[in-house]
Description:
By secondary structure, the chain is mostly beta strands. It folds into 2 domains: about 1-30; about 35-180, Jelly Rolls, CATH 2.60.120.200. Helices cover about 10% and strands about 50% of the residues. It has one helix spanning about 1-25; strands at about 35-40, 45, 50, 55-60, 65, 70-75, 85-90, 95-115, 120-130, 135-145, 150-170, 175-180. Strands 1, 2, 3, 4, 5, 6, 7, 8, 9, 10, 11 and 12 form a 12-stranded antiparallel beta sheet that branches. The protein is globular.
Amino acid sequence: MLRFNLTVRAFLLVATASVALLAFGVGQSFAARPVVTETYNIPEHECNGLKLEGVSYSFTTGGTPSSDCQAGTFTGPFSTNHLSAPNIEGNAAGVLTLSFAVPTTIVRFGFALDTGTPQAEGVTVRLYAPGRGVLRKAASSSATNDPSFVGGEFEYAGAAIRSVTIAFAGAPRFALDNLVYTLGD
Length: 185
């Protein structure tokens, strides 16, 4: 009987504390965060230094900041299975970095490469954890015919990440669109 009373009291204590936290708005951080799909329907802008909906963009070629990447452009394949203009378009020798103001647990985007040849590892994505930026995961995505360009979609769902680097291979130019991520509270 004593054990039952302790269990009931513990349950009531947790329930009371939960109601109190919700009343003060603390529980809202546990709610599902809004999901954003960025379609780059903006005036054309250099990727380096761009900030949209809690994401900061940078673009480097050979480790040096580069202006050879534009967001909101109609340059590229115009429309494939995973992207449509306007989009991001740039030099495939560069690296696009996305830094999230609040860590996200999902990242998805469509991409296209300016080549007619499928690429086994057309995109390499590195996902970094919050804090010191420890590499959480490195993944590649194949680029297949999509329909007149080579392209595909990258998708991650898992532990929180703070930043992403995206490198392209096998083509002179790339396009990226429909970036999906969670928005902070």
